[in-house]
Design a protein that fits this description.
Helix content: 25-40%
Structural class: alpha+beta
Distance between the termini: 29 Å
Bound molecules: iron/sulfur cluster
Number of helices: 8
Largest sheet: 5 strands, mixed
């Protein structure tokens, strides 16, 4: 209602923070154990068009996904790096509670789900054992008009993260240069990122932003096209060319190397053309949480 003011009593704020931690643990659990329906459907479509070893691989993957869901256990032994994307309204009243709840939820989820402790100090090699550390869990904050917040969770496996790449193209290379670089890179990765993958391609911005855009593109349901026809056409072209490589499920050959390619872009400096290639494995785990201005928290269905 226009002009309505919510007064948040301190006990209400504490209660929201506690509920937020619980709901985020639930989202972390869901992401680790239940593969979103759009990913399962894409894997099933891939299985149906494959034969021989490629089909056997996809059948094994789908059986593993069903067992994880049924038994409430992680889909893969690598439960990933817990990565958060928050889109918060400038008038969202629980920013501090949300900021504090994220690492706390990750710590508790590591024990309760459980998640594999995946954070190592690069100098000492010490693993704190709770999936937190310097800058981790990393949260990408975006401020938008409004008074609610959306949280996307993307646990990112190490094998597929190792296949991410930044390419600084020359501006003259243009979009044909993007196609060549992405297809060449996916051919070089072969089975390493546990295909069939979902590839996020970030074009433009700066070096850091292009990779971030690639990761943001992964938050879309698998195969949902970019709203701009030229970008959607590039996604389709890349999918066709990468699948024509024949790398196949787990690199054993076949028609399906990628389930989808998602492209996102930003304007770039005239002298540079950054290209971020982000590769996500078949375990394309996601969860999505919404918080209303009155403190109502909803874990949304898939991703
Ligand atoms: S790349 Fe993905 S599927 Fe492969 S081991 Fe890592 S998390 Fe698991």
């Amino acid at each position: 209602m226009k002009g309505k003011v919510f007064v948040h009593h301190p006990s209400h704020i504490t209660e929201v923070k506690d509920r937020l931690i619980e709901e985020l643990i639930g989202a972390l659990r869901r992401a680790a154990t239940v593969l979103p329906g759009d990913v399962v459907a894409a894997l099933e479509r891939a299985r149906d068009r494959e034969e021989g070893p490629a089909r056997v691989q996809l059948e094994a993957i789908l059986e593993n996904v069903a067992l994880a869901r049924e038994k409430g256990v992680p889909i893969c032994q690598d439960t990933g790096t817990q990565t958060f994307f928050v889109r918060a309204g400038t008038k969202f009243p629980y920013l501090e509670e949300l900021r504090a709840a994220i690492p706390e939820a990750v710590r508790r989820a590591t024990e309760e789900v459980p998640l594999r402790p995946n954070t190592v100090d690069p100098f000492t090699r010490v693993n704190p054992g709770d999936n937190t550390g310097r800058f981790v869990p990393y949260v990408t904050w975006e401020l938008v008009p409004g008074d609610s917040a959306e949280i996307h969770l993307l646990p990112k496996g190490g094998g597929s993260e190792n296949c991410c790449k930044l390419v600084m193209l020359t501006p003259a290379a243009g979009i044909p240069g993007v196609v060549e670089a992405v297809v060449e890179h996916l051919a070089a990765c072969r089975g390493l990122p546990c295909p069939p993958t979902v590839v996020g391609v970030g074009i433009g911005g700066g070096a850091d932003l292009s990779l971030k855009l690639g990761k943001l593109a992964l938050l879309r349901p698998v195969g949902e096209r970019h709203p701009e026809p030229a970008v959607a056409a590039l996604e389709e072209e890349l999918e066709g060319m990468i699948n024509a490589l024949g790398v196949g499920p787990m690199g054993l050959g076949g028609r399906t190397t990628v389930l989808a390619v998602h492209v996102e872009y930003a304007h770039r400096h005239p002298a540079s053309f950054p290209l971020g290639i982000v590769v996500q494995c078949w375990a394309d785990r996601r969860a999505h949480v919404r918080i209303s201005p009155s403190g109502e928290i909803r874990v949304m269905g898939d991703g």
